[in-house]
Amino acid sequence: MLTNLQARDVATVLHPYSNLATLPSQGTLILERGQGVYVHDVEGKPYIEGMAGLWCNALGHGVEELVEAAAEQMRKLPFAHLFTGKSHDPAIALAEKLKELAPMKAAKVFFTSSGSEANDTQMKLVWYVNNALGRPQKKKIISRIKAYHGVTIASASLTGLPNNHIDFDLPLSSVRHAGCPHHWRFGHEGETEAEFSARLAAELDAQIEAEGPETVAAFIAEPVMGAGGVIVPPEGYFAAIQPILEKHDVMLISDEVICGFGRLGEWFGATKLGMKPDTVSVAKALTSSYIPLGAVIIPDWIDEALVAQSAKIGVFGHGFTYSGHPVAAAVGLKTLEIYERINILGHVTDITPHFQKRLKALGDHPGRRSPRSRACGAVEVVADKAAKRAFDPKTAVAAKVVAFAQDEGLIVRAIGDAVAVCPPLVITEAEIDELFDRLGRALDRGEEWVRKERSR
Ligand code: PMP
């Protein structure tokens, strides 16, 4: 039985990323307020936000300084743009800060409002710059199966998940997908992580050769894959991939939309995993999600190509109304200031072993596994662990676990058979314990449900 608000919701709001057929009967969880790692629904029930919203609310709720930064900027100059020779201080200061933090020698920053727009911009820059450099055939971009890079036409093409392609007439013809670095699922019998990494690199090499290296422009990768199921790459993965890209003059785009700003204990996931990106995309934790903001950070050689092209043809014809929105930029600057002041990287480094220990304990169980994690991870429910047999997708066990978790006062997310956990970075050890106690109970209830279903 839906509440009045739920009924109004499902009657009017077209919900992103939802099963539109079942949502009207299931109803929606309607949230009202938040404090720290907790959110409260309209009935007043508290939940631990085990997903930091959508992997983004790094500082948790109720950070007054961010509210103040937004209010102050709104009072002073609520809108100004960066088109046609205009600028403003928040965008300049934030671009300087991002350049300073970037995991490579950065030249400039292009602002967007989301991760999808950032990756869309990446793809347009790859095409534009290769035209500018006089190699118009070098246009293909290789992403990976199970990657998540967004939902615009370009970024959804880069995403390597079936639901983002089927019936949307995607991916675009210039996008390819390479193998997914999920050792447990795709590793061969007896293959070590290092051997698996070497095989994936050899397969990528063969794929680029088959396409023709002169047609392949870029490889895009999240350091740790997030929405594809929290997949931490196997040992030596990027060290094996990187030389292949260099050999074929294929640039590396690091999609830091989830991993950027501390998720792996460094400013950028690329640094943690030894990637040497040419460019990066950021969003989400850049403002701790208090306001939409994304960015693409580019190196000198791309900047120079863009400038040279403008010298020839005039205007660089790309930009959003909200590119560098002053309120978003002010909140972004304040967020980065807070990260530095509270030493968020140190905090994440301190709590990660405890997070990993609790997550691993949940996976040490016959019907589950918890692959390697960082300050985000997943517990996967499996029908037969030894045989690596997954449940029939129709069983939707992980979705059931997520529903039980909600009942227990915990928000987590089902991705196939995996239950993803990605709490605010500021979470304490005591809150991590509470989170995993609740998740443990939800998993037990999920397994009890499976047993009952099977015996029916
Ligand atoms: N890249 C990655 C790695 C992401 O996780 C996401 C969002 N989950 C995106 C891009 C797209 O970002 P947005 O939803 O802000 O468009």
Automatic annotation (TrEMBL):
Keyword Transferase in record: yes
Taxonomic superkingdom: Bacteria
GO biological process, one term: gamma-aminobutyric acid metabolic process
InterPro entries: Aminotrans_3, PyrdxlP-dep_Trfase, PyrdxlP-dep_Trfase_major, PyrdxlP-dep_Trfase_small
Signal peptide: none
Keyword hit for Transferase: yes
Sorted UniProt keywords: Aminotransferase, Pyridoxal phosphate, Transferase
Molecular-function GO term, any one: adenosylmethionine-8-amino-7-oxononanoate transaminase activity
Protein name: Aminotransferase class III-fold pyridoxal phosphate-dependent enzyme
